[in-house]
Known about the structure:
Oligomer: single chain
CATH superfamily: Ribokinase
Order of helices and strands: EEEEHEHEEEHEHEHEEHEHHEEEHHH
Shape: globular
Helix content: 25-40%
Number of helices: 11
Radius of gyration: 18 Å
Number of domains: 1
Amino acid sequence: MPEQTRAILLHFSEDGCILGPHTTHAGADMRFDIAFVGHYTKDTIVYPHVTRVVDGGAFNYGAQVAARSGLRTAVVTRLAPEDRHVVAELERLGVRVFARETPASTCLRLIYPTENLDDRTIELLSSAGPFTPEEVAGLDARAVAIGASVRGEVPLDVVKALAAQAEILALDVQGFLRVARDGVLTSDGWPGKEEVLPLVGVLKTDAVEAGLLTGKSDRYEAARRLAAWGPREVLLTHSGGVLVCRDGAVDEAPFVAAEVRGRSGRGDTCTAAYLSRRLTASPREAVTWAAAVTSLKLEAEGPFRRPIAEAQALYEKLRKA
């Protein structure tokens, strides 16, 4: 069935009412520090004893971090009209939102069968469809982060367009490994990665994904193997923390959440925090900052909403440890 969509830039009043469409693509009259490209996702999170529905999407988790860090932030996303409250919240933070209205938002069901929050099954219930080059045309940002949920959400022509426009292109491998089979997301290799990886400045992966791609169970070896395939830096998260590999050297920092209550969005938050600090700092400083922000995010479901001063205080502790 052909998709019917309407391209709009959603602007909202304080009470969430649409003030009117402004453009059909991401061309803008200002240069952003950072931009995020990816679907909004409505996430139904199923734990052993409780089920919750939260607003997800890498763009949402990422923009919350960047905006609260004081960066000029933009997002390019796709979502259904009934989910526009997410856009309203971001705009109140000063984020410029370029959204394409679609018949349905991408809806995911994330099932955590045990207390091990790295053990999960993700079901794809609906999709907002693939981005087009027109939707990112003219996007002017120093760094652009692609955060897709499933292969095909951000096609190769869109990746190439963004790589040509940004100083730093960050990309999360999950949106290129994952495919839907009988409604369940599963990792199925990455056809065409040789064409994409040389375009990437920061490649985000987790330890499991890195192992699947490289055949290496040791995360340090896996990160170095991924880096040898073309990306300038590899950012790898695992249950205990995050590491970055650049030019063969590895810097890392631990996650130190008092209690883990918000596993979903861990990688998206970490990527955004790393990129936000990497614009002006070394990989070592940036990965420590990412660990601090992500640790605080892990303590609650949904995006990072803590005062940035708390992240700064935790960063100082980790830096001195």
